Amino acid sequence: MRIPLSIGAIAGPGITLMAGRSVARGGLTMPEKLQVGIVGASGYGGVQLVRLLLDHPGVEIAFLGAHQNAGTPFGELYPQLAHRIDQVCEAIDIEQIAGRCEVVFLATPNGVAYTLAPPLLERGCRVFDLSADYRFVNLATYQTWYGGERQDTAVAREAVYGLPELYRERLRTARLVGCPGCYPTASLLAAAPLLKQGLIDPRSLIIDAKSGVSGAGRTLKTSSLFAEADSSVAAYNVARHRHIPEIEQICSELAGTEVQVQFTPHLIPMARGMLVTLYAQLRDPGLVSEDMLTIYAAFYRQSPAVQILASGVYPQTKWASGTNTCFIGLEVDPRTERVVVLSAVDNLVKGQSGQAIQAMNLNQGWEEMLGLPAVGFYP
Amino acid sequence: MRIPLSIGAIAGPGITLMAGRSVARGGLTMPEKLQVGIVGASGYGGVQLVRLLLDHPGVEIAFLGAHQNAGTPFGELYPQLAHRIDQVCEAIDIEQIAGRCEVVFLATPNGVAYTLAPPLLERGCRVFDLSADYRFVNLATYQTWYGGERQDTAVAREAVYGLPELYRERLRTARLVGCPGCYPTASLLAAAPLLKQGLIDPRSLIIDAKSGVSGAGRTLKTSSLFAEADSSVAAYNVARHRHIPEIEQICSELAGTEVQVQFTPHLIPMARGMLVTLYAQLRDPGLVSEDMLTIYAAFYRQSPAVQILASGVYPQTKWASGTNTCFIGLEVDPRTERVVVLSAVDNLVKGQSGQAIQAMNLNQGWEEMLGLPAVGFYP
Amino acid sequence: MRIPLSIGAIAGPGITLMAGRSVARGGLTMPEKLQVGIVGASGYGGVQLVRLLLDHPGVEIAFLGAHQNAGTPFGELYPQLAHRIDQVCEAIDIEQIAGRCEVVFLATPNGVAYTLAPPLLERGCRVFDLSADYRFVNLATYQTWYGGERQDTAVAREAVYGLPELYRERLRTARLVGCPGCYPTASLLAAAPLLKQGLIDPRSLIIDAKSGVSGAGRTLKTSSLFAEADSSVAAYNVARHRHIPEIEQICSELAGTEVQVQFTPHLIPMARGMLVTLYAQLRDPGLVSEDMLTIYAAFYRQSPAVQILASGVYPQTKWASGTNTCFIGLEVDPRTERVVVLSAVDNLVKGQSGQAIQAMNLNQGWEEMLGLPAVGFYP
Amino acid sequence: MRIPLSIGAIAGPGITLMAGRSVARGGLTMPEKLQVGIVGASGYGGVQLVRLLLDHPGVEIAFLGAHQNAGTPFGELYPQLAHRIDQVCEAIDIEQIAGRCEVVFLATPNGVAYTLAPPLLERGCRVFDLSADYRFVNLATYQTWYGGERQDTAVAREAVYGLPELYRERLRTARLVGCPGCYPTASLLAAAPLLKQGLIDPRSLIIDAKSGVSGAGRTLKTSSLFAEADSSVAAYNVARHRHIPEIEQICSELAGTEVQVQFTPHLIPMARGMLVTLYAQLRDPGLVSEDMLTIYAAFYRQSPAVQILASGVYPQTKWASGTNTCFIGLEVDPRTERVVVLSAVDNLVKGQSGQAIQAMNLNQGWEEMLGLPAVGFYP
Taking CB atoms and an 8 Å limit, are D233 and A227 in contact across chains? Predict the structure, then answer.
């Protein structure tokens, strides 16, 4: 009982034209829709990609890789999708993937992507990695925080950091994209205008982050059990979370000077969503909230995925749930001469899979938010 | 900072054609898109309609009625929608509504619709009422359970019960539709094949329903407070819920004999979703689960909004969250000669606003699920 | 920084007297307080026992057995208890346990207790088993549902079913108690008056149970993850849950005839608590709710752990949270000639550890609710 | 069906002696137990007081004031307590209260206590106010943030700030106590050692607070609805919360210099609990976490209600749920030369009613934690 996708139903010459498929790709004759593959399809990142790409007007899923579930129909892993997808999970095979896919999303654990990306690039695929493997300019930093032996220096140097709001132009032509996760996304979108415009003391950045439990993935650990996480809030990895070096790398690049952040992640009793509360000391205490909001609105005026809220309005993570939108609100405190910025995202969409698709859209010359929900359901 | 809707971006002659706008409507020259109005836009039902209709390729919102919030921009009531809609809530004015809208959705409290529908119908509008006002064939029953003085017998007699899976044909031509709410929807979709095929004892029906708290709407009541409803489950209105007569009316029509149901609603600590657990005594103890699943699949083969699960799979309400899909699983218990049917819906979509839009789609000659999400996000 | 227990502070000759320690136990000179051991202390059942026994005026914890955590201070497993307990988890050693403890609580997985109970009984301990091992009169039934090879027929025959409200007298002298879990407890307390008084058709019993996620224990499984269980409700093991034979065994004993129940467990997004909604066909349709409430109140007048609610009041599981109280409300439906009974317990207290302590209190000749909370916190 | 309180059962001369009732109170003949009154008993603060005082061995509830519910049995407002209390709510009448009570708890909205406390004090009662009315040394500050016309300067000057860990000695003899709420309690207990010992820059304090929804009380507001607060987190009153001046007043007193705090409250989808994450710049970057933990342990060695966690352990609010304990963990970040302190309390116990009882215990010369739970249930 497969239903025709409403959006599928209206796909036609019009849409493919709009979807810019006339753009030559190496002069090859192209299939009607972009053929994409997902490796690591059975985790939360993977199922988000499947869900979003099924409704994406420009693509077709050509490969579903799920190491441990090879041979299992995807609809058995996620029965709620059984009526929309009849593909079967496959083992990871570079030739198979490269033979069928023009674009590959890697939703694999840290340390896997750098074994898959090089051969895939060689075979002409474009690669969007959702893990930490290609987020670091300096592989030594990667190895300090994630371990492993990296030989792929050249490949890593080519990777573009997949945050469209900051690297839009480079993403249009990238072959390899290292997509940031939820903490860096929410933190960097909140901090970027401040650092880029030199509005704050770069050593005063404090980021207090609140994450939904799905951020820990579908892996089995006691702290992710409902009975442990429900009706409770707690911090973890205080002053030692792996996302600190990644956030500092991009912040420093934005500021043009070394930036140090105090980062504290907290687990919140909700499945989805992330809120970042950012504190920073203003260089010019004269600025008021309205000025700052204008600066933010200008900074993100080309960015459909970022919505700046009205003065006095602060984001609720629920507003972003299921969407690729980041909501930002802020308050300048004249008393303390600090700015407090609040940014909310869905940790699994704008904070993960949606962001990778947004980068792919740019990379394909398509409209940035194509196929990505901008409005969540509420309540 | 308004973003072009990806789906809007691909709307064009193709889509309007597909959307069957060539269907003559009184020979009038029609605007490109169907002009719809929403009365009662500020409640949960209303904001769902706004959200879904904003992404619907065939319609345009021409009127937003919100009694208490007249004059307030909708984006102030729901800041998460501010970047998608700049309309202002208006006071209820029949001439204004009828002048601008071809279709009107009434998301008003019980007892309001029957004062608005008659004049709107007179002025040529099609009316989809989400309240209880037009769900009863017999107005005496309505008055017993909801009170009020009804003079609109003729109009009420014309109303079609807005459950597409049971009244598809009549909905294609209806001028007035009384859309069922979440409890009747989940209950009737679970019971229909059993009653229609005479598979059960019509007096043995027990419906144990579990509802998310949003079912109580946005009205302020102590029982809807987070601190009261969280981490707790309780029954309410045992043996006296207002939806009992409505469920029995349709069940009796399906069975061709008077059906009596035992209905117990429960409040579950979740915002969205509804699960119905239905128990009934089988007439033929020989039937096994697989037979029954085949019967259900056949019964709903024309119904894109209903998904029958595989044997041994039972629905989670989360699967339906944000979608217009009803998931149904079941088990025949040979020991007790009963069937246990489980049906899950999103109480605010398939259980309310999405269902009204599904009825409108049919009524417009469009694809039944046009503009309605079929896949929820997970987790 | 250990704080004197307020209740400890008021312990003295008075209390030990009251606690009936004058009761001879083999003429031995006894320590001031009853020495108890807990085997399987690191799971949810175990930590509940530790928490409750720490505040119990009559006992002292003499042994903490935790197989996998032997050698670890209990306060490291549960830091919130570190200021109250400095004992270290030990490996299971029959001689050690019997040498130090007069009473032993077994909070081990099914299939372990029947290897530990016999040797402990031989050595003079009284044993309270929280698993399924000693709940069945007929070991064949146990083996059908739980597997394993049982040789301990004689021992099993001696075991008393640990539901104080039904087996109070036998528990006063029992050496071995098989304590029921949450589903049977909530179900049997709701059904007992109906069956004992022959008020219902014994084949019409339908039990729709709603359980908090902690009922699945601290074991790691995907369905217990926060992101899976949150904001969702679903049924599981429909018509095949292991507690069915146990519930039917006691129901049949109460009714004096074979009783068959339709039992459907559901997982609710809350950590603690259980609600049972019971449906049954009345033999005498003349009974009204008030009569039935009087019958229940009389049936439980000697039972401090059961509270019958006023007419029209239905229990919220939150009321029972953290307590050893079972709240019961009901409604007789004259239309359908059925009774709907609602019973709420804390699945980990009255549904597990608190119940075992209540049985121990009776067994020691103490006040039944000694050391057991009767009032939960709210909200 | 009233059950004898296990603790009641063991009350006797011993306990009253222990409870220090020999302390002369104006040479009057005293009743066996301290007679206490609660004004504002129907709100969350009130019901917590009732629950805790019912189990308190030294007191007896002599008056239950509930303005809007005068005449209603308390057990009707909270059916889960019906088996434990048969008192009826009464209208507020100074003579009635003073005639029956030696100690009065005021759980009334801000602005009410200062009309009740003066006449009650005149009549010899001791008053514990849970509102903001008596927390300020300077009434002008109160009026700036809370409005109203205060004439009771002398009375206000006499009030003692009810945080036992900081004002233990003064509380022993106080006649009027202004008990702090959850935000100041969690914040001040986290900050006190740092400020008292001059370990941090007094202008660098940033307090990021996370509160359960019950903190908003039982008042009906949209933001407190389950469907709004569930599965979401958001900040509110950024840089303008009423608790800022109160926190700064005590911090300044501790530091002996003017302290300014950046305070951001957040609403977390849980009913109970509060976590404060405090950030401050260290004066001596040489300090390591272990040193700091030693300093905290020493600072609170006389404080049974504060538990300092081991190095690397951070509190979960669930650990404190239902208890009067504050759990504190911390981390010194040598990279940023900041200390991050985490403190968790139950917002309605240590953050409200339990704290008032703790102050009463001290005031009565009783053991500080008498009748107050030190161990929460888990999970």
Answer: no
